[in-house]
Amino acid sequence: MRQTIFVCAPVAGNVEKNLEGIRDYCKKLVKQGDHPVAPVLMCIQFLDENKPHGREYGIRIGRELMKCCTHMHVLGNKVTKGMARDIQDASRLKVNIEFMEYTDDLQTTQN
To answer: Considering its fold, how many domains does the chain have in total?
Structure first.
């Protein structure tokens, strides 16, 4: 059964590498037949996250898109403040939250 999966991952730090990892993970989900939702990949195209209005607007877009999701995959070994907020929102929305671990070659395993 196809799942609509909200991808929750760190972006700050090595932004380009992290975005590439999110894109690659989304590709993996598509190959599995699932529907990835990664608002950061869309919002970064037209919002300036360095400006408070841009960041907050992106968060609101993410929350709205999360309402369409059945699952959330949390990537990485560290939960940032923004990720923690997304996880809280998913919990309130009764979205199934799964913590995933991935290496540089983006092999994933469930925790």
So the answer is: 1
SS3 sequence of 79-110: CCHHHHHHHHHHHHCCCEEEEEEECCCCCEEE
In tens, the pLDDT along 81-101 reads 999 999 999 999 999 999 997
Say what the alpha-carbon torsion angle 67, 71, 72, 75 is, to the nearest 10 degrees.
-160
Give yes or no for residue 108 having a pLDDT over 60: no
C-alpha to C-alpha distance for 5 and 3, rounded to whole angstroms: 6
Query: Would you say 25 and 44 are in contact if contact means Cβ atoms under 8 Å apart?
Result: no
Q: Is the dihedral of CA 35, 77, 12, 63 positive or negative?
A: positive
User: Residues 95, 70: contact at Cβ < 8 Å?
Assistant: yes
Which structural domain range is residue 10 located in? 4-110
- CATH of residue 27: 3.40.50
35 DSSP 8-state letter: E
Secondary structure E strands in 1-111: 4-8, 35-37, 71-74, 96-102, 108-110
Side chain identity at residue 30, one-letter code = V
